[in-house]
Amino acid sequence: xxxxxxxxxxxxxxxxxxxxxxxxxxxxxxxxxxxxxxxxxxxxxxxxxxxxxxxxxxxxxxxxxxxxxxxxxxxxxxxxxxxxxxxxxxxxxxxxxxxxxxxxxxxxxxxxxxxxxxxxxxxxxxxxxxxxxxxxxxxxxxxxxxxxxxxxxxxxxxxxxxxxxxxxxxxxxxxxxxxxxxxxxxxxxxxxxxxxxxxxxxxxxxxxxxxxxxxxxxxxxxxxxxxxxxxxxxxxxxxxxxxxxxxxxxxxxxxxxxxxxxxxxxxxxxxxxxxxxxxxxxxxxxxxxxxxxxxxxxxxxxxxxxxxxxxxxxxxxxxxxxxxxxxxxxxxxxxxxxxxxxxxxxxxxxxxxxxxxxx
Length: 359
Hints:
This protein has 359 residues and is an alpha/beta fold. It has helices at residues 29-32, 48-63, 102-124, 128-142, 156-167, 175-181, 186-198, 221-233, 252-266, 282-299, 303-308, 341-358; strands at residues 8-10, 12-17, 20-28, 36-37, 73-76, 81-84, 87-90, 96-100, 145-151, 204-205, 219-220, 328-329, 334-335. It has a 6-stranded mixed β-sheet with strand order 2-3-9-5-8-4. Strands 1-7-6 form a 3-stranded antiparallel β-sheet, with no helix packed on it. A two-stranded parallel sheet has the order 10-11. A hairpin with a 4-residue loop joins strand 12 (328-329) and strand 13. The chain is elongated.
């Protein structure tokens, strides 16, 4: 398609967007990467944790033979693209400035580096059967078709404004939508599997990021994800990246299902009624998951045994129950800040004390 000294001809379609002339083309990643640069006067520095997260996702889907898709990368042409009589040409040694796609581009490069290192190691140890699939992954990434949206007539000021429009003013999808569809987040994927297993047991709101006191659902997909992080990681904050090695991989779903099924045994009838009971509150549900994690470690037992210890809880799960006395405001007769990390930890501590009294 090109060499270092010869203009490369590409097919594309130009149009006007927001008063600016834009060219759309699609070329292999390997080719694209020879024509682009990152100008830190236009955009921010690379976020290494974000690059690593995307790279891990790419490696995961490649090795699991799953498809993945990226939205178009956005560029400013500068002097790297010229129009000819019968199409468009990429100019050798000239560079387009990347406006949106820096982390995806960096993640693909990082994935290629990792795969090449894995290939070299396999070759050194004579693992021929490992080399062939790695070669396939490398070829796939090098020839991955990248759709490029190239602004043809921007000055530096306009490039900075475009970067801001794409990366600062842009709003992320709400967390409910992200947990529904995110293929990079292991806990989101596990939450969806758990929800599918429990769909006949009780109502789960899979769309909302927050649940209101009037909802008939007992919990949400978002809260299930938070419970899983508390259960397996012992964390009350968000978790990014791959899960820790908390238990055998083939037991993860069974443990998660056992925990959420235990709710039907320990919670009262009408448990989804948040006006009457606390067991429908996200802060209490996450605290219960954290409680199981602490019980497992404290008593040196497996997850299933720790979950069974919840049967010993003797409480009425009402708003004035002693397990949430630290968040009950008697002056207004309401619970406050149930879902703060500090209060969830205190709730879990109260639950553990109740269980230990019965042991």
